[in-house]
Amino acid sequence: MSDLVARTGRHQQHYEDVYRLIAGCVPFRYKSCDNDSSSEKIVEVLMINSPSGQGVLFPKGGWENN
């Protein structure tokens, strides 16, 4: 696993009115249950923790001009 540093320079990102446009995703996967009596699958969702606040969130980032 690698540590990535967030880009700086929001002057290169897209804005609409006063709002910064961002793009996000909800990464997930299906995982089979270990229960032999059922063929159900569990949905696992990836979330990340934010160094600037409490809790977890979905991965996202700003749109850049280039």
TrEMBL record:
<keyword id="KW-0479">Metal-binding</keyword>
<protein>
    <submittedName>
        <fullName>Nudix hydrolase-like protein</fullName>
        <ecNumber>3.6.1.60</ecNumber>
    </submittedName>
</protein>
<keyword id="KW-0378">Hydrolase</keyword>
<dbReference type="GO" id="GO:0016787">
    <property type="term" value="F:hydrolase activity"/>
</dbReference>
<dbReference type="GO" id="GO:0046872">
    <property type="term" value="F:metal ion binding"/>
</dbReference>
